[in-house]
Amino acid sequence: MKAIGIWKALPADDPEALVEREIPVPVPGPDDLLVRVAAISVNPADIRTRLRKTDDGHFTVLGWDVAGEVVATGAAVRDFAPGDPVLYAGDLSRPGANSEYHLVERAIVGHRPAALAPAAAAALPLTALTAWEALFDRLGLTPGAAPEPRSLLIVGGAGGVGSMAIQLARLVPGLTVIATASRPQSRAWCLSLGADAVIDHFADLEAQITDLGLAPPALVLLANDPDRHFPALARLIAPGGRICCIVPFASPPDIGALMHKSAGLVWEFMFTRPMFATPDRARQGETLTRVAQMAAEGRLRPTGTETLSPISADTLREAHRRIESGRAIGKIVLSGF
């Protein structure tokens, strides 16, 4: 089968940064699904993994957002069958899905309604799971339940996770959702997804919140450039508040800045459950099934803003270049081998 991967870290515009290779079709283990890949999308996780690849002589396949169809199942699988349409984000500790066929553990796979096209579905898994876990597992919000406190700041609202988080936060009645965006296009995007207000993350956050007549937020989802934004957020956060960060710091933050406010910093890493085989990892499959149904019914907008075709080394390098520019809105999807 055709697979697209990397041998070593190279700039995205280097023709050897991502290359095509023929590799064997994998064989499912007892709890695995073998999926024919129909569409994928690209995330910052792909970029970070590519740029950290050592020149160790091993060919590594990236890709952790998939929509496709089950073609074979492991002996212990009972809830999926060949022909089932699926979507999933996969497991960072296993080979990625930038290939014609891919193996994935059934527990972390969602059922995809036939009404949800592969290209739309491929934009959902990683960002929807990250946003869902950040809001509802880490920050303590509950779908359908009025929160206390009642405001959430999403730093990086126009990115893939921010775009999903704005929409999922709308499941919480009475929650004021403030997003950050720095350009007219990204500001308009955030408002179209349901943000109550949008502020510029390159300007004074505290002054902008004050100008809006809002109290300091007690909940913050930090989805972009934490080294730049954390000091300002530590000053802005309400006493007893909580910041959830989803991207790594380049250097250790001064978490002591949160002490006087009794505020906290928590992490959300979507791959924790599959990587550590946590007993509750099947919640990811359940969440994806729920999210996919919401998207099929029009209650959630898939955040793919552009689809490139076919899935090839050339189109993947182009997607990587656009993500690395820092100016992408929503998700970039690739469809069809």
TrEMBL record:
Q: Which domain of life is it from?
A: Bacteria
| GO MF entries | oxidoreductase activity; zinc ion binding
Pfam entry (one): ADH_zinc_N_2
Under SUPFAM superfamilies, the record lists:
GroES-like, NAD(P)-binding Rossmann-fold domains
Domain Enoyl reductase (ER) intervals: 13-334
Q: CDD domains this protein is in? A: AL_MDR (cd08252)
Q: Is Oxidoreductase included in the keywords of this UniProt record? A: yes
* Alphabetically ordered keywords of this record: Metal-binding, NADP, Oxidoreductase, Zinc
Is Oxidoreductase among this UniProt entry's keywords? Answer: yes
Family as reported in the entry's similarity comment: Belongs to the zinc-containing alcohol dehydrogenase family. Quinone oxidoreductase subfamily.
Q: State the PANTHER family in the record.
A: QUINONE OXIDOREDUCTASE
This chain belongs to which protein, by name? Zinc-type alcohol dehydrogenase-like protein
User: Organism source for this protein?
Assistant: Paenirhodobacter ferrireducens
